[in-house]
Design goal:
283 residues; Rossmann fold; three-stranded antiparallel beta sheet; 8 helices; globular; disordered N terminus
């Protein structure tokens, strides 16, 4: 056999090597990792300051992002600006400086008082919100009954406010707030006037509704245990001027109750910080 050319010799040598050991003559680029989607916050508060006229500053340079579906509790001593901050997010008051971004559809607000129309039944109170939303008349009754069912008040649809307990009136108010069909629900100490047992029951009700509807909730309270029980995130405001003095994120909120050990531990930690803020303001 004649001598192999140099090129043929290389090809013959290469063919004798198992394919699994061959070194490719080019590299395959690793696929680029999929980009992590950036979810815009439901509420964005950027460097917001609030002052009434020439009076002292109520809120000072507050910045906060609240994610879609998040349950955030705003906590602080009386007069720290919790309700003012909620009113600013709701658009009920203008900020002195800074910017607040909320969904184009706006926000729903639930106050400490149920503020139901006393001459209307529970269903009619909810229907009123549906009417203001623009829902056709023929659809309002069924939708109002569905919403009352969401807060476990189907049997009270035809009762007027004076026939309902305080807890039931607040549940009607919650159904009315849900009737506005806004992705963000702002709640200003809605259970403060209720007894402890009723408040605990409504905590369970609110948590169930939140998980079922996926609403973003901003909940104002001065009750430390309530904040530790309900919130995925608890934000502590300092006394005037109101600034963010502390923040706690809760990994899992499933199965929590007001008497749970983890709630008690978190409440104790937050209370210690709250006392420092109160002492600092008093000095």
């Amino acid at each position: 056999m004649g001598a192999l050319t140099e090129e043929a010799a290389r090809e013959q040598a290469q063919s004798a090597v198992p394919a699994s050991r061959l070194t490719p003559s080019f590299d395959f680029a690793a696929p680029a990792p999929s980009p992590v989607p950036v979810v815009a916050p439901s509420v964005r508060v950027s460097h917001v300051t609030k002052r009434y006229g020439a009076g002292p500053v109520v809120l000072d340079d507050i910045s906060l992002d609240i994610a879609p579906g998040e349950f955030v509790c705003l906590l602080g001593a009386s007069g720290c600006g919790k309700s003012t901050r909620l009113n600013l997010i709701a658009g009920l008051e203008p900020a002195t400086a800074g910017e607040i971004v909320t969904p184009d559809s706006g926000t729903a607000v639930m106050f400490q008082e149920s503020a139901l129309m006393p001459w209307l039944t529970a269903r009619r109170n909810v229907e009123l919100a549906l009417r203001l939303r623009g829902l056709p008349r023929g659809e309002r009754r069924a939708e109002a009954e569905r919403l009352l069912g969401t807060v476990n008040l189907t049997e009270a649809a035809d009762k007027r406010p004076h026939e309902l307990s305080g807890g039931m009136r607040q549940r009607v108010a919650l159904a009315r707030a849900l009737a506005q069909d806004r992705s963000v629900l702002l709640m200003d100490e809605p259970f403060a006037a209720l007894d402890a047992i009723t408040r605990d029951l409504l905590h369970e009700e609110l948590e169930r509704v939140w998980r079922a509807t996926g609403r973003t909730i901003v909940f104002v309270t001065h009750n430390v245990r309530e904040a530790a029980r309900l919130g995925q995130r608890v934000i502590l405001l300092s006394s005037r001027p109101g600034r963010i003095a502390g923040e706690w994120r809760i990994r899992s909120t499933t199965g929590r109750r007001i008497e749970s050990p983890e709630v008690a531990a978190l409440a104790a930690e937050i209370t210690a910080e709250l006392r420092k803020e109160i002492a600092r303001n008093a000095s």
